[in-house]
Amino acid sequence: MATKVFKMTAAGKAELEAELEHLKSVGRDDIAEKLKVARSYGDLSENSEYDEAKSEQAKIEARIGELEYQLEHSEIVESLDDDSVSMGDTVQVVRKNDKAKLTYKIVGYNQSNPAEGRISDESPVGKALMGAKKGDTVVVEAPVGNIEFQIKKITKGQMDN
């Protein structure tokens, strides 16, 4: 089975590293304290605080494992020097059907958060924008039909989160 490579910007990798460090230190310490307090209540078989703390511990450990795997298999992708859209770039577009102005930052899928305008290079819109230039019109196939975006501005490289 091929190992998945997680493409991300340097800033995105730094975010994941910070989250991992926080979970390994503060997160684990917090959960250890919750478990200690819950054990002090006695009988663990009917101790909802203990069950909740164990569940939270499992979630933290799963997230730590996920982050470690992603970081171990990460590939830093920087913005290219040309004038086409690449990972790490911020792209301003106009949706042609309703003239809505939208701004997207192209990131790896593990960094994506569409609500914050951070879209994956693997998403339909991200795929369509990758490699396009200012002034180009890209077409995105969507369940509601094709959506056309015209690229108005490309800001190269990393932007603050």
**What is the mean predicted local confidence, pLDDT?**
88
The strands making up the biggest β-sheet line up spatially as: 5-4-3-7-6
Query: How far apart, in Å, are the first and last alpha carbons?
Result: 34 Å
Give a quick account of the main beta sheet: strands, pairing sense, barrel closure: 5 strands, mixed
Walk me through the structure:
The protein is of the alpha/beta class and 161 residues long. Helices cover 38% and strands 25% of the residues. The chain is built from 3 helices and 7 strands; from the N terminus they run E-H-H-E-E-E-E-H-E-E. Helix 1 (10-39) packs antiparallel against helix 2 (48-72). The radius of gyration is 21 Å and the shape is elongated. The two termini are 34 Å apart. The model has no long low-confidence stretch (mean pLDDT 88).
Blueprint of the fold:
Layout: E1 6-8, H1 10-39, H2 48-72, E2 74-76, E3 90-95, E4 100-107, E5 118-120, H3 124-129, E6 137-142, E7 145-155
Helix pairs in contact: 1-2
